[in-house]
Structure formats: C-alpha cells, structure tokens
Design goal:
The complex is a heterodimer of chains A (386) and B (341).
Chain A lengths: L1 H4 L3 H28 L4 H6 L9 E8 L10 E3 L2 E7 H4 L6 E6 L8 E2 L3 E3 L5 E4 L4 E6 L9 E8 L6 H8 L8 H31 L5 H11 L8 H10 L6 H25 L3 H9 L4 H12 L1 H17 L2 H6 L10 H11 L4 H34 L2
Antiparallel strand pairs in A: 1-9, 2-3, 3-8, 4-5, 4-9, 6-7, 7-8
Helix pairs in contact in A: 5-15, 6-9, 6-12, 7-9, 9-12, 10-11, 12-15, 14-15
Chain B lengths: L2 H31 L7 H39 L1 E5 L8 E5 L3 H7 L2 H32 L5 H9 L6 H11 L12 H8 L13 H27 L3 H9 L4 H12 L1 H16 L3 H6 L9 H11 L3 H30 L1
Antiparallel strand pairs in B: 1-2
Classes of the chains: A alpha+beta (386), B mainly alpha (341).
Membrane topology (chain A): Multi-pass membrane protein
Family (chain A): Belongs to the binding-protein-dependent transport system permease family.
Organism (chain A): Pseudoruegeria aquimaris
Chain lengths: 386, 341
C-alpha cells in the first residue's frame, strides 16, 4: 500500500517538510534555553541565543596590558615597546579583527594592520589576529591603552553557570540542595504506591468477591478527582495527627494521589494475563499469595515500569503538592520547581541563572524519558485507548 | 537526621511494612483464624477466600478513602462554613461556623472569580482543540515516515518537562526588551525584524491567556499524538485500501475513512486533556501569577487558600472545579462499566 500512496511524490515531499517544520517548532524553545544556559550573562543580554551558534561580529572594548605591570614594557633601542595579543588579554581563544579605533567616537578609524598615531609620539599597530604593538619614545605610565574592536568571534560557551548553580557552596541560590530534596521526595513517593496498588490490582483482577465491580468503578471515578480538593482537608489532617509539613506528609500525599492510576493500570494489565497460568497454579496447590508474588508480579513488570515512570515524572515535576505539604517557612525543604518559581520572581531578567536552574531540573526527567520511552508509551496506551 | 537517610529508611520501612503486612495477614488468616484442617477444613477454606480479597485491598482502600474520597466531602463541608479564630484560643485554634451558601454568594460577587471562570472556559475550548488537532496531524504525517519514530519522540519530549520548566522555556521565547535594544526573545526578534515594535506579550490582557495556553498545547500535543498514532495503526488496512481503489485522494482518506474510525479515541484524548486543563495551576502561577487578567480557577483557589487564608471561599472554588470535572467522571465510570460487562 505504501507504493500506491507513495506514487504522489510531491505529497511525500510536503509531508517530509511539514514534519521537519513541526519538529523544529517543537524543539526550538527548549534548545533556546539549553543554549542560553551555556552562555555568559553578557552574551545572553547582547545577542539572541540563535546567534550564539555561528561566528558573530561583535564590538569589543579591550584594554592593552598596563605599562606599570612588571615586565610588560621592554626597551628596544630608543623605543619603549609593549607587545601582546588583545584576544588573549580578554581571555578569548581567537577572533578576526576587521576595523578598530582608540576612541569610542571612532571605533572604525583604522583597518587591521594599520598603525595609529597617538599622543606623545606613541604608535599603535593592531593586526587582524589580535596581535598589537605599542611603541613610545619615552617610558609609558598609567593604565593600558583602550582599543575598540570590531571583530568576528567564534561562538563561545561556558560551563560556569552550571558550576555556580550546582557546585558552589557559597551560592545561596544554588540548586544542589533542592536537587537532593526533590530526589528525597521522589523515590519513596514512587516505590510505595506501586506495592500497595499491585496487591489491590490483583484482588480486583483475579479474585471473586461481592462489590468488585463497584470498587473498580470507584477507582475509575477517583482517577479524575482534582487534587485541589484534597489540599486543605489533608493539611488539616496532617496537622491533627502531628506530621505537619514535611517529607512524611508529602510521601503520603503522593502515595494517595498516585494510587488510582496505579491500581487502574495494573488491574487492566493483570486482567489481560492468560487465565490458564493462574488456574494451573491453583490446581497445583499454590495460594493466592504465592500466585501473586511468584507469577503475577514478575509478569506484570512492563505495567509496573510504566506506572513507575509516570509517578516519577509526576512527583519530580510537581509544584503544588510540594508547596502545600512539604515546604515550610524555613525553606530548608524547598524542591527544584519551587526554587525555579522563586528565581523567576527575584531574578526575572537573569537568564543565565534561570536557564541553568531549569535545565538542572529538566535533565533527569529527560534522561528517564529517552531511556524508558517504550514503557511510557505503553502505559499511556493502556491508560487511555479503549 | 539527614533527609536522604530518612528517605532510604522510609523506603525500607514502607516496603518491608507492606510486604510484612500482606505476608503475615495471609499467614494469620490461613493458620489461625480459618485453618484448612480439622473437621471444618472445607468451610474454612471458603471463608478464608472470602476474607482474603479484603486483606489485599485494605491498604489501598484506606489510602484512597483518606486521601481522595474524604477530602471531597470535607471540602464540601468547609465550603459551607466560615473559619474564625476561637476567642481566647491558641494561634492554631479555629472554629468552623455554618454559613450555608454565603461563601458561594461572596465568591460570585468577585470580579476576579468571573475572570478566572472566563479564562478557564477559554482554556477548555482552545487547549484540547489545538492539542488534539496538532496531535492528529503529527500522528498522521509521521505514520509512514522512515524517521517517524524520531520525529514523534522529539514532539513527545515536552511531556517529560515540568510545567515550571516549560514556563521558563516559554518566558524566554516571550522575553521583551525596550525598543532599540537587541531582542533576546525570539518572538520579539521576529516582530522587530519585520519593523514592528517589541511587545511585552504576557501583559496584554485577553491575548496573554493565549500565550499561556500555547505552553500547555506544546506539552499536550505529544500525548495526543502518541495515543492517536496507535489508534491510526489499529485501523484495518482493508478500509484504506478499498478507498484507494475507489479513487479517494489522501485528504478524503484521512477525513472520511480514518478520522471516523478513531472517533472514540479522539474523545478519550480530548477529555483527558480537558482534565489537565481544569487543574492547570503551575503555568499560570509561574508565568503571570494571575496578573494582567490571566487568572484561572486553580490559581484563584490557591490565592484564596494560602494568601488570603480564606478557607471558605477557597473550598467553594475547589468545589467549582469538582463540579466541572463531574461530567467527565460520570462518562468515564459509565464507559468502564460498559467494558466490564
């Protein structure tokens, strides 16, 4: 059938191009933030991130070496000379200078390779590769000569942002603590509901008892109850039993909110397992408990993995539940999503900080996503397609 | 104790607690309460098997009841009461006085509530419609493409990104600088390159809601695509082949043959995204916090509960969300019951 539909090659081209356009459109925003997280604050503020990938023409102001510094000035014959490379002084790897000047009013006064006459008989030559030579009849003093450059510089990226957001212990805005807090919330909140749900799902799938159909209907109903309703009653409840705000509360809350989906997914999957296996085991004298742990649980691995990924992504990315049940006034237990929202408020324009913070938080889910996409898709299909 | 250690301990206690509970409760049931021996062995086995499902279900029922069912009732009660400090009581002591529908009346009188309602209705129409349409388009276009799976995976990727992360990503897209400066937000860079004036997109009332919706559409399209793509694969080949033989063009095949066959899946996708939209909180909270007329119900409720500390109106607005969800709840339950028969 491919060849029949594919006979219209112009249509095939249109399809290819539209998919490319769609994919680019979907990737573009994320790539923008990713690129920004590897640029310095200056670079982000002076040019759009889409220009960062290509060599760009930049206007730079670089100061030549200070004559007062030791060893900078050397006497050659009757001239005092300072030599060096402007790009090296600025900490850049390389660049190509087209024009330059010595005053902010005339930044394009000279072409690369030309010599400028300065005051007191000084002469300055700047080459295209950044090498400069400053000569004077007398010993020079004061600060280094400023040079205004128009240069084509290759793209430059830096890991400094990640270093300061993750590894710098003095950075009060660092994400390291929040990262571990998020991890601390996520792992128990993923593991515990799976166990509880698996037993319940087995009972709902393979045990016969009155009220089973109604229980399943209730689970399906609870699947859509907005968790907004649970905030105040549960906060009250946690305060009454003495848990207050803290990890225990947030683990319990995530367990409760994750259960309907867990039971629903696992029950659907278990109900689809072949009846023969279970009946044979029963004939052989296995108890329900044995059937469950030895046969059903291993066979249900794909469904367990699906739910684990859902629950992991959901708890890792959650803001509301953490804000209500975990984060107290001290802010010691803040999670990454909350930290990012705070940064959006206080550092709204500092994109190097925001972009890096966001990517620290996004990296883990993306990793899980690309590694386990198969299970995620399978879980989605089991949860929705009827 | 270090929280990470506490976390590990909780996993250990939680997991061994669960396994221990299930193991020992079964053991006790079979050995001591209804032992499968003696004169009553047969009757005991039957009885044990009647009790066992409830042993398996007990933890789940307690958790579901406490964390989902009870809050619905409690929120309803709170929405009909007013929280006042107990005279002479401590700082955490409150009395809940019955006020009937007063909270609802007060809420209805607030313009902010109606703004949230209006925006929520807009979200409810726009986001599911566009997500489903884009998802269907992407599913159909990538269906027979050699690199279709790569394309799908990239369009699906935003699903893994948190709403907060997505908000940061899109805030950079919408970033605005004063006129004359280099624009670092792509949208304004495009506008100014065509000679337009830079706009602060998120502060333009009415239209800014749509800029927020774009974020959710961007996230949900991947979900719609994955589900609809599976549905498209499930369409019997013969129906498509028959249409080709009859001379149908690709557009007719898509709209007249394929779409009608996956209608029920489209409904499921639509309602699932509707549920996400009704609860949308993070995006509005992180991007505008409901300013410039972008308020939505979930954020309005959060404001009332935790900023204004008004539990009555906060609960009332939560009940409004519940009310909006109820038709989908009923529809889902009915579908599930139909299937089980």
């Amino acid at each position: 059938m491919d060849n029949i539909a594919g006979s219209k090659s112009s249509l095939q081209w249109a399809v290819q191009l539209s998919v490319i356009a769609l994919v680019l459109l979907w990737l573009f925003p994320t790539v923008g933030l990713l690129v920004s997280s590897f640029r310095t604050a200056d670079q982000i503020a002076t040019s759009g991130w889409w220009k960062a990938m290509f060599p760009s023409e930049q206007n730079l102001v670089i100061r030549a070496a200070d004559p007062d510094d030791e060893g900078v000035q050397v006497q050659q014959g009757d001239l005092w000379v300072i030599e060096g490379n402007l790009f090296a002084l600025d900490g850049r790897s390389q660049g190509e200078i087209s024009v330059w000047g010595t005053s902010s009013r005339e930044i394009d006064a000279y072409a690369a390779g030309e010599t400028a006459e300065l005051k007191d008989g000084q002469q300055l030559t700047v080459e295209a590769n950044g090498d400069y030579r400053l000569t004077a009849p007398e010993q020079m003093t004061g600060r280094g000569q400023r040079v205004f450059l128009t240069a084509v510089a290759p793209p430059e990226f830096t890991l400094d942002n990640y270093h300061s957001m993750l590894l710098d212990p003095n950075n009060s805005e660092g994400m390291a603590k929040a990262f571990f807090n998020t991890l601390t919330v996520t792992i128990p909140a993923t593991v515990i509901p799976i166990l509880i749900a698996a037993f319940a799902a087995y009972a709902l799938a393979w045990m016969d008892f009155p009220g089973r159909a109604i229980l399943i209907a209730i689970v399906v109903g609870l699947l859509v109850v907005p968790l907004q309703l649970a905030l105040i009653p549960l906060l009250k409840f946690h305060n009454n039993i003495g848990i207050g705000k803290g990890y225990l509360g947030v683990w319990l809350a995530h367990t409760g909110f994750g259960l309907p989906l867990a039971i629903y997914l696992l029950r659907n999957y278990m109900a689809g397992l072949p009846r023969d296996i279970i009946e044979n085991a029963k004939v052989d004298g296995a108890s329900d408990f044995q059937i469950f742990t030895r046969i059903i649980l291993p066979l249900s691995f794909p469904a367990l993995a699906s739910f684990a990924i859902f629950q992991f992504l959901w708890t890792w990315n959650d803001l509301l539940v953490a804000k209500v049940f975990l984060i107290d006034a001290s802010g010691e237990t803040t999670v990454m999503t909350n930290k990012i929202v705070e940064l959006l408020g206080t550092r709204g324009g500092n994109w190097e900080i925001l972009a890096t913070a966001a990517f620290v938080s996004i990296a883990m889910p993306l990793l899980v996503f690309f590694a386990m996409q198969r299970y995620l898709v399978r879980g989605l299909l089991a949860g929705s397609v009827k | 104790m270090h929280p990470a250690l506490q976390g590990l301990l909780t996993i250990a206690i939680g997991v061994s607690g669960c396994i221990g509970y299930f193991y020992f409760s079964n053991l006790i049931l079979d050995r001591f309460i209804f032992p499968a021996k003696g004169p009553n062995a047969g009757r005991n086995i039957t009885r044990a098997n009647m009790v066992r499902p409830w042993l398996f279900l007990l933890p789940a029922i307690i958790a579901l009841g406490l964390y989902l069912a009870y809050p619905v009732i409690e929120t309803l009660r709170l929405s009909l009461t007013e929280r006042v400090p107990v005279p002479g009581g401590g700082p955490g002591e409150y009395a809940y006085n019955w006020v009937g529908a007063e909270n609802y009346v007060k809420m209805m009188a607030e313009p902010k509530f109606w703004e949230a309602m209006r925006n929520n209705m807009l979200w409810l129409i726009v986001v599911p419609a566009f997500s489903t349409a884009f998802g269907l388009l992407a599913a159909q276009l990538t269906d027979r493409l050699s690199w279709g799976n790569v394309a799908k995976s990239l369009i699906f990727m935003p699903m893994a990104i948190s709403f907060v992360g997505a908000s940061v990503i899109w805030k950079l897209v919408y970033d605005a600088r004063p006129e004359g400066q280099e624009q670092i937000g792509i949208l304004n860079a495009i506008v100014t390159s065509f000679g337009g004036e830079p706009q602060t997109w998120l502060t333009i009332p009415f239209w800014n809601s749509f800029f927020l919706m774009v974020v959710l559409i961007w996230i949900q399209t991947g979900f719609a695509m994955v589900i609809l793509s599976a549905a498209l694969r499930g369409i019997p080949e013969e129906t498509v082949e028959a249409a080709i033989v009859d001379g149908a063009n690709p557009f007719q095949i898509f709209f007249k043959i394929k779409v009608p066959q996956i209608k029920s899946t489209i409904m499921v996708v639509w309602t699932t995204i509707t549920l996400v939209v009704l609860k949308v909180f993070d995006i509005v909270f992180a991007m505008t916090n409901g300013q410039w007329e972008t308020q939505v119900l979930a954020n309005y409720m959060f404001d009332k509960l935790f900023r204004a500390n008004d539990w009555g109106i906060g609960s009332a607005s939560a009940m409004v969300i519940m009310l909006l969800v109820t038709p989908i709840l009923v529809w889902n339950v009915r579908n599930a019951r139909k299937e089980m028969r």
